[in-house]
Design goal:
4-stranded antiparallel β-sheet, single chain, alpha+beta
Amino acid sequence: MIRTFLHLDLKPGRRDDVIEWYKETGALERAVREAGCLSTEIYPDPENDDRLLVTALWNSAADYDGWVSNPWRQSSTDGINEFLAEGFTSESKGSIVESLHHASAQVG
């Protein structure tokens, strides 16, 4: 199991716009429909209003690579780049860490 961390450095004052973009496009929902994606979230940086963290839990790095090469994700970079201080390319990826041991609660 891996977790990905994608730091978004935003243009000043665009945080709400980026969050709205994620909601309108359903980007997180699209990711969890991808094979091997278990969950994904967006977190604010408590010390910087112009920075967000997008994180996701995946079964494997290969599953994450499948998302990175997903045609929708590749075509969506222009939309999100409007809000980012440094633009993405279709190959942009977050950092990856592999779980060495984990436990989780059953939901439901």
